[in-house]
Amino acid sequence: QVQLVESGGGLVQAGGSLRLSCAVSGLAFSTYAMAWFRQAPGKEREFVAAIGRMGGIRHYADSVKGRFTISRDNARNTVYLQMNSLKPEDTAVYYCTGRSSGSYFTQDYDYWGQGTQVTVSS
Length: 122
Description:
The protein is mostly beta strands. It has strands at residues 3-7, 10-13, 18-25, 33-39, 46-51, 58-60, 68-73, 78-83, 92-99, 111-112, 116-121.
């Protein structure tokens, strides 16, 4: 059974930092590209960041570029999202997701986590 379990969300003041983690089990982690998406209240889910199988390829949404960093540890089957200089508009449920092939940016990923809430107060 494939599981993606996010952790690290919470409440933080604007300008602060959080580090999200996603522990993956039940699949060959190093053969999957991984990504983070987010969904704010009343809005559609949107792409945040993606990382290739070996970590050499990384993509970011323009809204988070320079503030967020995606990384992975294939030995620990874990993907991370370091979020710095957080803004109230970053408030959303953040989802971890993985796919074996296809575009980094579309939402037709193979597996999804349950999400973790990030709230940034002004």
